[in-house]
Structure formats: C-alpha cells, structure tokens
C-alpha cells in the first residue's frame, strides 16, 4: 500500500459506498415512478445506473494516484489486489472513462431520434440496435485500453527513470507497481514519440466525444425551440429531460476530460500538478458514479418529489398524470 493523503485514500471509498445506495434507489425510481409512456427508454437509464455501480467497484478495487517526474507523469495503483504485477490493471480502470463517454453518446442519439426521426426510435432498442450500442461501448473501452497499453505502459527504460522518484517520494520500489506513464523529454526518441502519440490520441478520442455532445445538443435544443406543435406539458418535460442530459454531460467533461487533459499536458511545460491530480482529479473521477444518478433525480420531478415525500420534506399530493415526452412514438 502507498499512502498519498486522506482524500485519495478515503474519498473513493465514501463515494463508492454512496453510489451503491443511490444507484439502486435510482433504478427503483425509474421502474416505479416513470410515466408509462417512457417505454423502453427506462432501460437506457437503468443501464447507465448499472454501469455506475461497476464504475464504483473499479474505483474501490483500483485506487489510483499520480506523481510528476519532471517532463513526465506516472499513474499508478496505490492499494488493493491489482496494485502489483497486474498487467492491464490501470488501463482497464481508466477505460471506464471512455465507456461513460459512449453511454452519453447513446443517450444523445436517443433524444435526437425522438425529435427528428420518432418512428426510428424503436429500432434502437431492438436486438440489432442493442448490439450496436454494446459494440460502441465495448469499442470505446477496447480502444482506450489499447492506446494506454500500447503507448503508456512502462518498459525497462521508464522503470529505471521513475525508480528514484518513487524512492524519494513514497519510499517504495516501483519495479512491481502497476502503472502507466508518459515521458516527453529526457528519454529515448522511442519513449518520447510513443508517449506523445498516446496522449494526443487519447485527447482526440475524448474531443470527438465532446464534439458529438455539443453538435447533437445544439440540434436538439434548436428543434425543441422550433417545435410549436408540441403541447406545453410535453415541451416542459422535453426541456427537463434535456437539462438532465446536459448536466450528465457536464459531469464527465469537468470531472474527467478537463482534469485528465491538465494532468497529461502540464508536465510538457515542466509544471508539477501532483497536488491537482491527487486532491482534485482523482477525487472528481471517483464522484462521477454518485453524481450522475443524483443529477437525473433532481431534474425529473417524479423522482425528486418522491424522495422529498419519503424524507418528509414535502407533503404528498395527488396530481394528474402527465404525458411524457416519449408519448410520440408510443413504445
């Protein structure tokens, strides 16, 4: 075990336990408090919640930390069964980031189809569509893992370079520690070019996901503003659910994309951001599977009001059933 600080050691555990409580609760709300017209879209919400649970499991089994080594960085596992001599452990842990990007793309595509091609929505949740979503998610994960292992896994040269830093800072031998590393200077051309290719590829990969969110989000928002045939109730529900999706998108953008970009590129300019990585970046990554369902609950009135009644913060009221944004098409 390598002790970094209280936050790095305990916050992933706290967020993980909270995630195990909130996500099953969220699944219960989706199954029991969703409008019937929501149809099969409920399964997408449930799928995201199940993914969040596995994300939390990965966080707790493979807690990670980062140190800077001059013109480079090292991401390593600090504790647990995969902290030593575990090939692909760090890469597999990091691949959950790219898989969360894929799931958000699926949600944006669904919302886009609802507004632009409503009669095609059913195909998305048929066997072929489900297979396509699985392939997209698995492809994201496999691509991220391949880039990490192919470009950032350490060789003997890297092991020799980082050994003094680990001995000085953590007083441990880094030879058997599970880690990934990027080195931009003071190394062989092979190591430098491999690191640069890997980091730039991961950045382009993440940027493509952000572009999909922005483009589809803009089209969805524009369509909602132009659609005058929609009832006021349906329009309100459309906006509520779109706000939830935008908030869900901001979580990985600010909790994973921006923090990791800073962690990747700061060492190029000899900027030491070890404190940022271990106090901010890793804690933000651990919080994602907890914040994600909480945001959806907040923006969907049926879910939020149910919890407020349960906690006696609001009196139960009898309201007329509202027509969901998914009433067209009927699923």
From TrEMBL:
Q: Which residues cross the membrane?
A: 12-31, 43-76, 96-116, 128-147, 196-220, 241-264, 276-300
What are the record keywords, sorted?
A: Membrane, Receptor, Transmembrane, Transmembrane helix
Keyword Methyltransferase appears in the UniProt entry? no
Q: Which Pfam families match?
A: 7TM_GPCR_Srj
Q: What is this protein called?
A: Serpentine Receptor, class J
Q: Which organism is it from?
A: Caenorhabditis elegans
The organism's lineage is: Eukaryota, Metazoa, Ecdysozoa, Nematoda, Chromadorea
């Amino acid at each position: 075990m390598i002790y970094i600080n209280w936050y790095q050691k305990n916050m992933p555990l706290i967020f993980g336990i909270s995630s195990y409580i909130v996500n099953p609760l969220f699944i219960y709300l989706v199954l029991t408090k969703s409008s019937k017209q929501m149809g099969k879209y409920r399964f997408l919400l449930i799928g995201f919640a199940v993914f969040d649970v596995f994300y939390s499991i990965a966080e707790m089994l493979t807690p990670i930390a980062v140190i800077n080594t001059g013109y480079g960085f090292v991401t390593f596992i600090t504790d647990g069964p995969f902290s030593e001599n575990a090939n692909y452990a760090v890469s597999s842990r990091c691949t959950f980031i790219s898989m969360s990007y894929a799931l958000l793309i699926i949600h944006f595509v669904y919302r886009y189809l609802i507004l632009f091609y409503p009669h095609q929505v059913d195909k998305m949740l048929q066997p072929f569509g489900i297979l396509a979503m699985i392939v997209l998610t698995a492809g994201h994960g496999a691509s991220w893992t391949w880039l990490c292992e192919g470009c950032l896994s350490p060789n003997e040269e890297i092991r020799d370079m980082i050994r003094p830093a680990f001995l000085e800072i953590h007083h441990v031998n880094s030879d058997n520690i599970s880690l990934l590393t990027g080195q931009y200077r003071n190394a062989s051309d092979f190591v430098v070019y491999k690191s640069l290719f890997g980091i730039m590829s991961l950045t382009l990969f993440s940027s493509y996901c952000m572009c999909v969110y922005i483009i589809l989000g803009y089209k969805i928002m524009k369509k909602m503003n132009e659609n005058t045939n929609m009832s006021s109730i349906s329009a309100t529900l459309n906006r509520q659910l779109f706000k939830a999706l935008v908030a869900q998108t901001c979580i990985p953008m600010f909790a994973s994309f921006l923090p990791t970009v800073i962690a990747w590129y700061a060492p190029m300019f000899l900027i030491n951001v070890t404190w940022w990585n271990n106090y901010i970046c890793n804690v933000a990554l651990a919080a994602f599977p907890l914040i994600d369902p909480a945001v959806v609950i907040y923006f969907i009135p049926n879910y939020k009001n149910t919890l407020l009644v349960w906690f006696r913060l609001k009196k139960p009221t009898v309201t007329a059933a509202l027509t969901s944004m998914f009433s067209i098409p009927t699923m």
